[in-house]
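[RESIDUES AND BACKBONE]
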Amino acid sequence: MMISGIILAGGKSTRMGRDKGMLEIGGKRLIGRLVDGLQRIFPEVIIVANVPGLYDDLGVRVVPDLIPDKGSLGGIYTAAAIAGHPWAFVMACDMPFFNPSLIRYLATLSGDWDAVVPYTDDWEPLYALYAKTCLPHMERLIHSGDLKIARFFPHVRVRRVRKEELEPYDPEGLSLYNMNTPEEFARAEEWWRQLSSTG
């Protein structure tokens, strides 16, 4: 599979109040779970992070944002640029319900597109695939100061993956859940306990 798996862990975690990449669920650091899961799918896994040494124990390459302080768009740009393959599957470090079946399905859709992006009530750009062909369009937005990710979508071929297409692979609807606050983290822990007890 000519795709790199890349975890974005470069955010400032302002609303969480602590580094989201260091959160633990089910007795294991979340980012470690994501690395292990992505390594079972993709030939290359990289973390984009801006704190030196924080993830050295995970045994994967860690790269800082190529253009600092440009938010999620800057992280996606970095991911696509540093990927050793033509495509990058990008996911945020704060998504606790890792779903290999859904990720593999999204990967099969790349084809002749430039990006494969789930769309539920809005775009889900932090659980998506980007080809290197997106880079000049992202770069133009970054240099203009416009950091809204979806603004470059009209300039590339985007495969929109709608909610009903995701459901067979994600019946609980948890795969795209991300945690920005302590309350969202607590909710994820409760769901994790419920799933673990029924699994």
Notes: The CA atoms of residues 2 and 85 lie 5 Å apart. The domain at 3-198 is CATH 3.90.550.10 (Spore Coat Polysaccharide Biosynthesis Protein SpsA; Chain A). The first strand starts at residue 3 and ends at 8.
